[in-house]
Amino acid sequence: MKKTLIALAVLGTTSGLAQAQEVVVKIGHVGPLTGNIAHLGKDNENGARLAVEEYNTKGITIGGKKVKFELVGEDDAADPKTGNIVAQRLVDAGVKGVVGHLNSGTTIPASRIYNQSGIPMISPSATNVTLTQQGFANIFRTMANDAQQGSVIGKYAASKLGKTVAIIDDRTAYGQGLADEVEKGVKAAGGKVTSREFTNNQATDFMAILTKIKAQKPDVIVYTGMDAQGGPMLKQVKALGIPAKFVTGDGGCTPEFIKLAGDAMSEAAFCTQAGLPLDQIADKTFKDRFKKRFGADVQIYAPYSYDAAAALIEGMKAANSAEPSKYLAALKKVQFKGVTGEVAFDEKGDTKFGAITMYQYKAGNWVALK
Amino acid sequence: METLLQQIVNGLVVGSVYALVALGYTMVYGILGLINFAHGDVLMVGALVALQVVLFLQKAFPLLGAVPTLLIALTVAMAVCMALGYIIERTAYRRLRNAPRLAPLITAIGVSFLLQTLAMIIWGRNYHSFPQLITTTPLQPVEGVFITPVQIIILVSSALLMTGLILLVNKTRLGRAMRATAENHRVASLMGVDTNKIIATTFIIGSALAAVAGVMFSSNYGVAHYAMGFTPGLKAFTAAVLGGIGNLGGAMVGGVVLGLVESIGAGYLGSATDLCHLPSWAQSASLIETCANGGSFELLSSNYQDIFAFVILGIVLIFRPTGLLGERVSDRA
């Protein structure tokens, strides 16, 4: 009996001390860390991790207590079913906010789980329009959506690059959604869509659909999907001797794409990004800090992932609470200078400052077009 | 016409890679009745080892030239995969040879995950671009039909390898021992055949073919990645079943047929089911706008590329449950 009392007393004092020292606030991150776009998932996670680590060095106090943020990284393997499981796991682990997921196809189903538990979720890369149109108050994103991106691609392809456009998508929520918007954009610019073709996000051989497209002689081929397919696809466009220009969306706008397409890269290759180019973002030192911390180059959305994590923390600071129910209102109104520029959300949860940048391949790099 | 020819060329190239991998599945199945699900991942290991060797040689011996570099890389990759095939057989399957069938199947899947995870740890998550050692500038044997030198090499070398394997199984002492083991390994061992050695040899040969297929795959598409073995593995398994699993000729026929079906399916399924080509449909109120100005309304499009291949597989299995060439059991090896 005596022993128990002492044990309890010891327990009481240690936990009391811990409280006086600091409170740990968990922030979740979800992206594919395995599978064929794991490099992009890691890129996003590193962005969020850098934000959390940099805020920790600033020594933030919330509700009078010193706070230590902790990033809980989960892997959804770009698979919607796994995405839902890990979303539930994060909710059960008591995270106060989530950065993610990466793919639209995993983010949309998972957003329902975060909505039911009232935890704010900010995606740094899920561009599908539907995400923020479900009427969920706690769902946000830090970059422009596919309606904006698709219309830029479609109009550019049909007015600057040619008249006839063939569109290929990878049948994911992202690829399909973006392809639909591209088709609208092409038609709005007075161009013609010669055909819509489909592949999947595991494929490496596109010879059959490209041969079919070749027979229709389009001026431009648009591919809406990830770099892992886009690079080899461009290679096969060259192997078949197709003279069309090649445009891909943000999923292909990576250094990885250039490596994979190899000698098929030429000035006939274009891509878009739902955001600003790395050398035009507000924080000029971000690129070097990222490289120094992780020893890797930024792929695409790491800065947007940084800002998503930063927005959660800024929201908590403004509300002086890390409780989702208390800081959600502050998060909706948050406005601060992030690494990408000003960060603020509209009433749906979309970013107020969404930019779309068109790139052309020149001398070994994607170069932003003005 | 050149579109059709091009689709046939596409199909043959993909099909011969499938066939090479399918041989590995079918040889193991023929002898052990086991589906070696790790086979696709052996292909991946072959490709990544070859990549590593190519990168090393390019740095250490830049004057070596493209063809010797690729040949050395291929040899090393084959050696590594042969050792890997032996280790897999020895550690994961041999002890389970008399266990219920489900047990080795589960270990096969386990080995597949293990190889993928190890490759992810060693080579990272990123896609690697495979150096283009042989020119990819396409040739035009017929006006409008394009084929790259890499694709020609794939076609020729897989035909040679397959002929070689058939000769090995049917004409040599080792082949006779393999066929005997396939028919009944207990009786074969009573006749003085070292069945353990024969089974290990089967795994080693299959893994060497997978390594070649992996190098071909990577040189053709210019990519290598730790998860790259999954899709060709699945397709090759389908090809082996289509041709009649356990039958060497069947695996080759199955691979080529599957490649052609996929390619022609993706190329023509759309226009074949285009409702705008049917006058009665095209005039109907709901389609008249879509079909105007050469528009199309495709009922089934390249969306159904993979499904189409599996529908063919289903139909073949309904009418010939043992696959296209499945009944010639005596040829199993």
TrEMBL record, chain A:
- SUPFAM superfamilies per UniProt: Periplasmic binding protein-like I
The residues the entry assigns to the signal sequence are: 1-20
Highest taxon of source: Bacteria
Q: Which Gene3D superfamilies match?
A: 3.40.50.2300
Which InterPro entries does the annotation name?
A: Leu-bd, Leu_Ile_Val-bd, Peripla_BP_I
UniProt key word Calcium: no
Lipoprotein among keywords: no
Question: Which spans of this chain does the record mark as coiled coil?
Answer: none
Name the UniProt key words of this record, in alphabetical order. Amino-acid transport, Signal, Transport
According to its UniProt record, what is one Pfam family this protein matches? Peripla_BP_6
Q: Which PANTHER family match?
A: AMINO ACID BINDING PROTEIN (PTHR47151:SF2), LEU/ILE/VAL-BINDING ABC TRANSPORTER SUBUNIT (PTHR47151)
List the protein's name. Branched-chain amino acid ABC transporter substrate-binding protein
Source species, please?
Answer: Uliginosibacterium aquaticum
From TrEMBL, chain B:
Keyword Transmembrane helix appears in the UniProt entry: yes
The record's keywords, sorted A to Z, are: Amino-acid transport, Cell inner membrane, Cell membrane, Membrane, Transmembrane, Transmembrane helix, Transport
Which CDD domains does this chain map to?
A: TM_PBP1_LivH_like
Give TM segment ranges: 12-35, 67-88, 100-124, 144-169, 198-217, 237-261, 307-326
Its localization reads:
Cell membrane
Bilayer topology reads:
Multi-pass membrane protein
Q: Which Pfam family would be a valid example here?
A: BPD_transp_2
Family per record: Belongs to the binding-protein-dependent transport system permease family. LivHM subfamily.
Q: What is this protein called?
A: Branched-chain amino acid ABC transporter permease
In which organism is this protein found?
Uliginosibacterium aquaticum
> What are the top taxonomic ranks of the organism?
Bacteria, Pseudomonadati, Pseudomonadota, Betaproteobacteria, Rhodocyclales
